[in-house]
Specification:
This protein is of the alpha/beta class. The chain is built from 31 helices and 22 strands. Helix content is about 50%, strand content about 10%. The longest helix has about 55 residues. The N terminus is likely disordered. It comes from Trichoderma breve.
Length: about 950
Amino acid sequence: MDSKGHASESSMEVRQEPPNPEEKPNDAQSFPDGGLQAWLVVLGAFFGLFISFGWTNCVGVFQEYYETHQLASFSPSTVSWIPAVSMCTIFIAGPFVGQLFDHFGPRVLLLLGSTIHVFGLMMASISSQYYQFILCITTWFLKKRALAMGIAASGSSMGGVVMPIMVNRLIPIIGFGWTMRTCAFMMLGLLIITNLTVRSRLRPQPKNFGVASFFAAFKDPPFLLLAMAGFFYSMGMSPELAGYLVSMFNGASGIGRILPGYIADKVGNFNVSLFAACLSTILVFGVWLPGHSHATTIVFASLFGLSTGTYTAMSPALVAQISDIREIGLRSGAMYAFMSIAALTGSPIGGALITAAGGSYWKLQVFTGVMLAVGSAFYGASKLYLAKVAALGKTSNPVSNTGSPSFRHHRNHEKAFGAIAQPVMEQHIDAMVVGLGFSGIYQLYKLRELGLSVKAVEAAPEVGGTWYWNRYPGATSDTHSEVFRYSWDKEDLLTYPWKTRYLPQAEIKGYLKHVVKRHDLEQHIQLNTRMESAHYLDNSWQIRLSTGETFRARYLTTALGALSKTYFPQIPGLDTFTGEMYHTGNWPDAHDFSKKCVGVIGNGSTGVQLIISLADQAKQLVSFQRHPQHVVPNGDGQVTAEDRKRINKNYDEIWKNVKTNISGHAITESSIPAMSVTAEERERVFEQVWKTGNGIKFLFGTFGDIAISDEANKEAADFIGRNIKHIVKDPIKARTLTPPGGFNRRPVTANGYYETFNKENVDVVDVLNTPMEIFPNGIKLSDGTVYNLDVIVFATGFDAVDGMYHEISIVGQSGRTLEDHWADGAKAYLATTMNGFPNMFVVNGPQGPLTNVPPLIETQVDFITGLIATAETSKEKMATESQNGNKQLGPVIEVTQEAEDGWLAKINEIGAMTVFAKGGSWLTGANVDGKKQVFLYYVGGVGNYNRVVQAEIDAGYPSFNRFY
């Protein structure tokens, strides 16, 4: 396996201290999704809603009491204005209370509201705002948000169960006044718990008052309760039974607020809400309207409570999911203010309909059913619209800097009502990093140094990038271990040294995990998450993730890895094989190949390492190769005490050499032309490196012109050919393993490769001259030879450099996609950025040096971070200009088209001068069928590349447009 990886940084500069871990709870995009404090908030909200909306949910009992006692001389329609005005007052205060919540948080409101609520029991109270308790929960939960909200919301239903029975029992015994006082004392005790437990995870942030720009569905549960109590009475039931039916309704509603919340977290909030709304409509027209018996009424009360409890509990979850978490107070308030219209008019309209029908309830029933049907239709229309938005990859609101919602399609939600979009909250951050191998980890580290809010996502369940996925047997770096690490943490070299000269995959992955922990980077990392799309809008990137989350980030850095997109060649019969099939780039955690016949297709660095490792395991192993490789021993072994002493003493000098030479490796490069010495001297030099090891050293450390002189290159290739013939005993195998051309591919290095083919169970087959096809039991060659196999392993490499980018929808300025920009071949200025894609950066992108990856990544990440730091400094000037009336949306970093084209021309010019132009390998994309072939690498040397980058920095970034 090649030196595949991701990023880092250089220099021993003094670093800022990492952010205080205590500040993490105020991170708007980090949700605990559990823990003692989070569930205590849910408990407190439960009790708060128990005594506030739980009390409101038993208005049917009070409606009946008023009509038969204090207000017996008034019509039901007139009496209904009392609770209607009360409910309207609660809801219409929403925007103002929401603004107070955003400014001061929940504590002040709860203390004030508790006092008013207890001592003025029937008054509309700012503490009884349904959404105020829900707001705090949204800051603690994301993936379990619907369940947490449902549990809290069930408090209002539980209150609706207990309160009517309690009031009905107490009024005849102690009278109306003492009943109210008893309830008030009970509420005082519960509100104490609420005040002690309910708090927001985020600090209050004052905002200017504004109206939320979205439509919320109309629902009026209090009116439905009033109508039920009156209906039960007219059917000949006693007022006491009517009160118990209200309790039944609320009991079922409690279940309807918890269980659907759990389901919604699995299949989507909108899916569950739409189902509940439709079910409620069906129950009204199918059960309530035609029903005339007590049994039917009881069944309706229970089922209707279940369905309406669902969409009542889900409404806050829907708002939270499509809103910026820091604006939920105002948005929720605006929604409930809109609902106040229904709260004010619903009950009087219902009373008027009963009167107009001569005491019959059929008009009321039809009105209720129609309103629910209209609400269901709006739910359906919303979902269709969201599905359309998700398909187009656009935001639902062009005003991007106001916390506007955006949406994406949830793959795991398709099972509910088909492929329907799931709305998600758009979270605002400064920067997003995608990929957490060497590149992404270092980029995250550097951006945090700038003091930016950063989110880093990784598709794998662990950090490591390429070194997580490529865990096949024998996976090893081909770079000396002392320089296959970050150079900027010199202290870590002493505390975390390597034991061997070359590093196996597990050690590299372990090292990267160690770096993440050592520098406290876990808090910014989200695993098992892919970036599915990125769209440049209003000077920032709208990023959709596989989890359903949407982020708006000023800067986007992709660290996907140059060798990450696995490649399967187009082999006839590929889908017919009935045995086991694997790719080395996505290896299973553990597998036993003993007693099995294994075919390995491909023999690059990965194939070579795998063949050596499997030869002692497999019953039979066959290498199917198109192009033989020049494989040089790597000279692996233990790092001795003397080696360690030398490395520690010369650490700075070693890294200086690595960053200024051609190869980027810890070798002494030669400047002597191969043909300037005698044949005997050439043989001696080649033999010395062959014995001590390393393919890169064989290319650059023997003679200085092997990569650019055909004659010198032939001498090197012939030397390796002679060694193959000497090592491999079978002349047919030796001939098959000997490359016919020059030493013009990326050097492959491994101990014991050619010796492996001396084993009786190992064979090699030329499939360039005898093409193969796959059949159910194995592989068949064009000459009729058949190989029956249990396992086929594809060591066929990668769609290098740009392969992973074709899996993601990336849209830059003016709607131009990255796919279009790279239609004639992938290109990026200094392998880091592209014209037309402002504020987006790639690490180890197209046209970067062919070199040891970690030091290259350090150069590129430092360059990107410097650009961002300059842009952030320009924000101060932008703020000044903005105050003078010039509209400024944020800093813009964009390379000019001329600079990008100029760099590509230089790449092609230098590449054409080398032997790599004739190699036909993944360095130009030639290994992928149908891929546009361009030089994907700068072969002028990492030292020269670093000098070009530094010149750009020293000149003040002349290749970029103005930063603001």
